[in-house]
Amino acid sequence: MNIKDLKSRYRNERLAARDHLPADMRTEYSLLMADHGGDAFDFEPGTIISGFLPIRSEADIRPLMARLKARGARLCLPVVQDRMTIVFRELVTGAELVDTGFGTRGPGPEAAVLDPEILLVPLSAFDARGNRIGYGAGHYDRAITRLLQKGREPRLIGIAFDCQEVSEVPTEPHDVRLQAILTESGFRTF
C-alpha cells in the first residue's frame, strides 16, 4: 500500500471513530480540552491565534478560544478562498459570521486578514511524534507553507479526540509536524 492510500485509510478509519462518539460525549470532551488547554501554553497578550468553528464531528473549541481570548489572545478563523487557499480573518466580538464554505462560518471579507503565530489545527489522525493527517485537501499544508515563506514560524497545536491517534502516520516531504496536541486527556508537546 502506498503512502497516499495508507493516509486515506487512516483518515477514513479515524474520522469514522470520531463520528461514532455520541454528541454529548464530544461536548464533554471539548470542555475538557478547554480545561486542559486554556493555560497549557505560554503566549504574550496580543498574540494572534487561529482557532476554528466545528464542522461535522470536530471538537468544539469555542470554550478554549474564549479562555485564550481572556488571556489576551487576538483570535482569527480560517476562511477558504478560491477552494484552495486559506486566509485567516480576525474574529472580534459582535462581528457577523458568514458562510465561508465547507460547512463552516467565519468573519466576512471586511475583517482584517492576519498571520497567526499559533494555529489550532483540526485533523483526522495523529501519532505520538506529532505527525498529522488532515482532511486531504492540503489547505493547512499550503497555509503553513505560505506563513513560513513570509518568515513566520507558527506554533502548530493539533486538536483531536484520543480516538484519532494512530501508531504511526506515514509522512511525505511536504508534511509539517505539530509541536503539540490537545485531546480530552490533556496537552502533549512533541
Report what the structure shows:
The chain is α/β, with parallel strands linked by helices and 190 residues long. The mean pLDDT is 94. The relative contact order is 0.19. The protein is globular. A hairpin with a 2-residue loop joins β4 and β5 (104-107). The strands form 3 sheets. An 8-stranded mixed β-sheet has the order 6-3-2-1-7-10-11-12, with helices on both faces. Strands 4-5 form a two-stranded antiparallel ribbon. A two-stranded antiparallel ribbon has the order 8-9. It has 4 helices and 12 strands. The chain has a single domain (3-189), classed as 3-Layer(aba) Sandwich (Rossmann fold), CATH 3.40.50.10420. GO terms for molecular function: 5-formyltetrahydrofolate cyclo-ligase activity; ATP binding; metal ion binding.
